[in-house]
Amino acid sequence: SLDKGETYYQIGRKKLDEMGEDAIALRELAIQAEILKKHDEAVELWEKFIAIDPNEPKAYINMGISYCSLGKFEDVLETAQKAMKLAPDMKEAHYNYALGKLHLGSAAETVSILEKLLERVGKYPPAKFLLAAAYCCAKEKQKGIKVLNELQKTSMSRSLPVRCYELAKGLISSGKSEYALLLLDAAIDSKSGNKNVLELYAKCLGMTDDNDKSETNQSLFHEKIETKDNKCDTRNEIDDLGILKQAWELRQKGKTDNAIETALKAQTPGHELSVEEISTWIKEMSVRPVFTAH
């Protein structure tokens, strides 16, 4: 559990202070710090490890993961380049470099990096998913959907909606809302979405102060969820996306209670949500700027 992990981590830090800096101990603590979401501490520990062993490429890979968690994508690129210099064939280094490039707004370059990587290493699902996302962000939607459909036939299938949602959230935090919208749009059209994906899609459409554009975006949202083939068949979630259209319209009129009642009545057996859960996501559906970079 996280509580036990925190306890072991604090014990490890205390021992490290007593024993002095040991490479093995630093590596284990750095990995544990990242698991515990202590990203700044993880970076600090990897820096100390690298001071002892500067020629270990995996240290730069792991430090890059921590920088990614912190949204420091210039540093992600720097650590990936150092890893590639030490181990040119290490696929994780190229993956980190591509991820950094995407978050910094270079979708076309990301596509090129990942296509070359997959041609060289073959099967590498994380890179294939990132390539699908990069295609979408580079406005090559059909290529992106094709790759997403291929991934649906793999063990990654059930995690695709979560991956799409989390990457889109990260892109928004990086100031790349347009990329997020393109990815979410393809996720929905390829049936790689769920309730969270659709809600985030709605929020991305609403991230504008332009009333005319906002009305156009609402029309796009309605068109998206009215398409019969765009049902998100995710367990334990409402699978009739038409409910969201009704809830959207009622929410815009300030009739939140009506929206909750509508959603409750329209739920499909086996996919029910509680009143509290429905209330939470309806309240989050307002068309307004809702994200800030962090």
Provide a descriptive summary of the structure in words:
This protein is mostly helical and 294 residues long. 71% of the residues lie in helices and 0% in strands. The chain contains 16 helices and no strands. The protein has helices at residues 2-19, 23-35, 39-52, 57-69, 73-86, 91-103, 107-121, 125-137, 141-151, 160-173, 177-189, 195-205, 211-226, 242-252, 256-266, 275-283. The longest helix is centred in the N-terminal third of the chain and has 18 residues, at 2-19. The relative contact order is 0.06.
In short:
By secondary structure, this protein is mostly helical.
Attribute tags:
294 residues; mainly alpha; globular; disordered C terminus
Q: Which spans have pLDDT < 50 for at least 5 consecutive residues?
A: 208-214, 228-242, 284-294
What is the terminal separation in angstroms? 27 Å
The geometry reads as globular
Number of helices: 16
What proportion strand?
under 5%
- Order of SSEs, N→C? HHHHHHHHHHHHHHHH
Number of strands: 0
Largest sheet: none
Helix content estimate: over 70%
Question: Radius of gyration, rounded?
Answer: 22 Å
Mean model confidence by pLDDT: 81
- Label the structural class: mainly alpha
